[in-house]
Amino acid sequence: MPSNLSERAIKAKRQDKTATVIISVIVGFIILLLAAIIIYILAKGIGKAVDPSFLTSNPQQFKEGGGIGPELFNSFYLLVITLIISFPLSLGAAIFLAEYAPANAVTSGIKTAIEVLSSLPSIVVGLFAFLLFVIQMGWGFSIASGALALTVFNIPLLVRTIQQALESVPAHQRDAGLAMGLTRWETTIHIILPTAMPAIVTGLILSAGRVFGEAAALIYSAGQSAPALDFTNFDLSSASCPWNIWRPAETLAVHIWKINSEGVVPDLEAVSDGTAAVLIICVLAFNLLARFLGKRLGKKLTAE
Question: Could you tell me the pLDDT band of residue 112, with boundaries at 50, 70 and 90?
């Protein structure tokens, strides 16, 4: 009997080592592949990405040396408007589903619908926005149409992320709040939300990175043109006013798709590589910011 146990222990250790090696090889391959893609994109476009004139000047469709100033501004402007709309709605919906909604078939159906919508292809969201906002509402290709398209795209992702963050808070913290005489709303605001805030902020920034790089939904809603912007112009009815939400707005991701599909820019490869590098840098910055704020908030709010 002891010899059998010893053989089983040796066999289990061998299996564990084999599985560890296989998993390590797979993870290492994935990391190398992702790193190679990022390094390749940055190596080809970093020269343009760090050129101030490229980042600030207007695109010149039929001339060399066109910049991405309007596209870069449009990407951030659309992102800010989208988060202003989608985050309060997503937070309220997540709080209701996690803290107030009864556990019944209706709630289960709503959660299933949110999961389905969170995996909806962005091109479908773009076509929906085109039919509703661009055609039916008569807004045309505009920042307003694009922001609402991104809101439809972003709300299911945010609701699911915030809901999981709230549900991960231990139940004894809720019980402690209620035992001290706090209402359910006071417990949610003063105990549950601060505890879940690091995960909520991390999810918010990561979703912002995904929205920032979105293209398909914006092709059919925000449009494929980037008028030259005049930051001294505050006429909200002017196409050159940066803050006009009724003007078309081409983003970085849409710009990459457009210039490669049209093929009319003389220095197409350089502009495309530079734009891709800027997009990658921005998305990496979003991820690093999510990690930094998540750790800082975790230490500050939970005293860990």
Answer: confident
Tokens for 58? 């207007």
Of 195, 31, 185, nearest to 96 (Cα)?
185
Q: Would you state the structure tokens that stand for residue 154, as one six-digit string? A: 């972003």
CA dihedral 140, 223, 144, 49 (to 10 degrees): -160
Q: Are the CB atoms for 252 and 68 separated by under 8 Å?
A: yes
Position 67 scores a pLDDT of 79
How far, in Å, are 20, 96, 129, 144, 271 from residue 78 at the CA level? 44, 27, 15, 8, 22
Residue 18: count other Cβ atoms within 10 Å of its Cβ. Answer: 10
What is 48-302's CATH number, 1.10.10.1100, 1.10.3720.10, 3.90.1150.10, 1.10.10.410? 1.10.3720.10
pTM of the model: 0.85
Q: What is the DSSP string of 220-261?
A: TTT-S--PPP-TT---TTSTT-TT-TTS----HHHHHHHHHH
Q: Quote the pLDDT of residue 142.
A: 92
Residue 132 confidence (pLDDT) above 70: yes
Query: What is the mean predicted confidence (pLDDT) over 115-122?
Result: 84
pLDDT at 2: 55
